[in-house]
Amino acid sequence: MNFERIKEKLNILADAAKYDVSCSSSGSNRTNKNKGIGDSTGIGICHSYTEDGRCVSLLKILLTNHCIFDCAYCVTRKSNDVKRAAFKIQEVVDLTINFYRRNYIEGLFLSSGIFKSPDYTMERLITVAKKLREDENFNGYIHLKSIPGASDELMYEAGLYADRLSVNIEIPTISGLKLLAPDKKHEDFLKPMLKVKNEIVRYKSEKKIIRSTPKYAPAGQSTQMIVGATGESDKDIMYSATHFYKNYNMKRVYYSGYIPVADDKRLPDIGSQVPMLRENRLYQTDWLLRFYGFSVNELLNDAYPNLDIEVDPKLSWALRNLNHFPVDINKADKSMLARIPGIGMKSVHKIINGRKFRKLNWEHLKKMGVALNRAKFFILCDSSNWERRDLDAERIKGMILQTSVGKFRNQYSTQLALFN
Amino acid sequence: MMNTSKTLIYDGSFNGFLTAVFIGFEQKISQADIQRSGQTQNGLFAETETIFTNVEKAKRVWNGIRNRSNTAVKNIYFAFLSEKKGIEPLLYHYIQKLMGSRENKASDFSDDAVLKINQLAHKVGREKHRMEAFIRFQLTKDDIYFATIEPDFDVLPLISKHFRSRYADQQWIIYDVKRKYGLYYDLQGVELISLDLQDIHVNSINKNDAFTNEEYEYQGLWNNYFQSTNIKSRINKKLHTQHVPKRYWKYLSEKKEAV
Question: Start and end of every Radical SAM core domain (chain A) (predicted)?
Answer without folding.
Answer: 62-237
